[in-house]
Amino acid sequence: MDKLLTPYSLNPTLTLQNRILMAPLTRCMADPDLVPTQAMVEYYARRADAGLIISEATIIRADGQGYPNTPGLFTRAQIDGWRKVTEAVHAKGGKMFAQLWHTGRVAHPHFFGGEYVLAPSALAVEGSVPRMRELVYTVPKAASHADIKQLVEDYAQAAANAMEAGFDGVEIHGANGYLIDQFLHHAANIRTDEYGQTPENMARFPLAVVDSIIARIGSDRTALRVSPGAYFNMGADARDREVFDYLLTQLEQRDLAYLHLGIFDDSMTFDYLDGTASAYLRSHYRKTLVGVGGYSAETGDNAITAGKFDLLAIGRPFIANPDYVARVKAGQPVVEYSDEMLASLI
Ligand code: FNR
Question: Which of 166, 254, 304, 306 counts the highest number of beta carbons within 10 A?
């Protein structure tokens, strides 16, 4: 584990104690006001020896909610709640980014008492909210120019709130079929204005969010997660390739803290990306890249040594092993993850 356990400098502002990141993991255990609880404080603090903890996806405003009890970063109580989490992580020598989230068409009016959900286009995602089958996804309202302007502002405000809550930075959730990703894929974006049809147009909203957050908190503290391969809440379309080719060229000109692949299994291949999503990102983006998706410490270390990415995010094994990093250091076996573990915060 030569690579994994050595420090890594993201930039002059942030150096990580090792290259193991805790992946963002939605747990649906915030309180009814979407405020982090004391159990969440302890859950994150137990994992402070990760190089960087990325928080579970955290909604930037009420209409971004698509699942029950997902935390927010838009009220005083939510900011104060997260401050307890970041203080506990910092007290144990850790670092933590907030993952900023708006689910777009994967939101449901049930959660915020609204009339509609917002998305690039009036195209519903199929199905219903997991474990709440009566909540069938609705046809969204296509965001107006005023809606888009407000969304960009609300992302920047949530980033500022994250800094006030003591986070070391933010990861913009641009992956997994949620709002930002919806703009980047033809299956969800059929707009005919300056936010649709061409790569430049389809990347316009995501880049506006990135730039507004950089302007507010600095590029050193801003990261982005993307899913060039459509695999969740999204259909594949070969034309998406040129959208991501363009987006990555643009992102490389900004000094983000890192770029993070969004995927569950990195052995998955995509015809229109000519292979895996991580190999595609690596060949189009030379700055710090975070790999993820089905890795063990050993296979992740090998991938870093082979230059496939620079940092490794670990998801499910971190749910099963609060002491994941200590186990890797000691060469001890890890407890295997199972879905029943989602029922409690150990
Ligand atoms: C996730 N994942 C995820 N991704 C994300 O960007 N934001 C999130 O809030 C969540 N939430 C979430 C919850 C649960 C229960 C799982 C299992 C996954 C995806 C996660 O970050 C990671 O990409 C995958 O779990 C793949 O990595 P592992 O688990 O194979 O190491």
Answer: 304
Among 137, 155, 178, 324, the one annotated catalytic: 178
pLDDT tens-digit series, residues 295-341: 999 999 999 999 999 999 999 999 999 999 999 999 999 999 999 99
Pocket of ligand 1 (CB under 6 A): 23-26, 56-57, 99, 173, 175-176, 225, 262-264, 292-294, 314-317, 342
Residue 325 in any domain: the answer is no
- Indicate whether 333 belongs to any domain: no
Structural domain includes residue 336:
no
Count of structural domains within the chain: 1
pTM score above 0.85: yes
Long-range contacts of range 27-31, CB-CB < 8 Å, 24 or more positions apart? 27/56, 27/342, 27/345, 28/67, 28/68, 28/69, 28/70, 29/69, 29/345, 30/69, 30/70, 30/71, 30/72, 30/81, 31/69
Domain of 164: which CATH number?
Answer: 3.20.20.70
Q: 328 in a domain, yes or no?
A: no
44 a catalytic residue:
no
Q: Which residue minimizes the CA distance to atom 2 of ligand 1?
A: 25
Tell me the pLDDT band of 1, cut-offs 50, 70 and 90: confident
Query: Ligand 1, from 20, 25, 58, 60: best to mutate by most atoms within 8 Å of Cβ?
Result: 25
